[in-house]
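Lab notebook, bench 4. Still working through the backlog of constructs that have no structural model yet. Next entry is a single chain of 174 residues. Request: give me the structure tokens for it.
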Amino acid sequence: MAVVSGTNQQEFSVAFQSNATTDIKVFVEGTQKTEGTHYDIKATTGGSAAAGLKADGTCVVKFKHDSGAGIDHRPTQNQVVTIISDIAVARTSVYTAGGNITADALESDFDTLTMQIAEREEAAGRALTAPKFDPTDIDMTLPDKDTRKGKALGFNATTGNPEALPPGDITEVT
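Model written out:
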């Protein structure tokens, strides 16, 4: 996540590894942007950079700007730009009995698994979690930012799920 420090910052380096540009999601102030419409993914910085990912899976997100065509999708000063990895959890390789298993195929599969685990670890680090002995149907998802602004975190008296409450509505504290 980055906060735009200058006016109309156009390029953002992505240090995490990805397998495809479609594995990268870009948000400005919480609104998802579209590759090809709002931004392009380039292998390096600069105007003539090749499209796509570098050999190591990193890249640069470059917001579109063409003053002659009246296009300016660059985030403005103090806008929050969030760039995340969003790799689908699915097998991409199938190994068959007696078939060839190459080092490149195994390396690619292990890279993908490592990226998927890193995504889940990052998400889990930001999450509320219920104790392991609580029922499995508890939903510990927080209300979205705009719903919880200026509110107190409370827990529903019936479900135990988190909810945003006006500070004056808290009636019981133990």
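Notes after review: The first strand starts at residue 2 and ends at 3. The first helix runs from residue 103 to 125. Flag for follow-up if needed.
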